[in-house]
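Dear colleague,

Thank you for sharing your sequence with our group. We've completed the structure prediction you requested, and as agreed, I am returning the results in plain text so they can be pasted directly into your records. Please verify that the sequence below matches your submission; if there's any discrepancy, let me know and we will rerun it promptly.
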Amino acid sequence: MAFIHNGKMDWWYQRYPKDSTAHSVSRPGYMFILGGLLLLLALYPVLKTLSNQLHSALTGSYVAGHHSVILINCPNEQVAKDIGRSLMERRMAACVNILPRTATMYYWKGEIQDATEILLLVRTRTSKVQTLTEYVRSVHPYENPELLSFPVEDGSLDYMKWIDEAVPDQPHTPT
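Please find the predicted structure tokens below.
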């Protein structure tokens, strides 16, 4: 059976009459629902991170982006060794590779420059990238050193666990 409303058949009025549904949720109820949705949206990044970590712990899988590889160019081998050793002593890096001389071309102050540099490949936790970047900028001889971070999407779980053991979450003070 259909109801006729304003000269038209309206199938919704048959099941949900307007008078009974219009006042079923009070104004404070709407505010409570809206507040709950806003809280859920605000906490989404935290909840997503926690659920990823819980999933990783329960299944033994890797959480993409938990570790990073950082590229740092240095003017010579001694600077590269000094920065690399300093990062290791401060427990900011699990491993530092010092790659041999590379030919580099770049724009600097409007001109093309040619240089020979040493490249560092640094493995660390993503949570340490900002601290590591600030430290390297403070000791690096370049005015604007190259510091590029790339999140690790996947890899050997044993290796990733080793990085976690080598680079603690809490700050480390060198002895």
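Summary note from our side: The radius of gyration is 28 Å.

Kind regards,
the structure core
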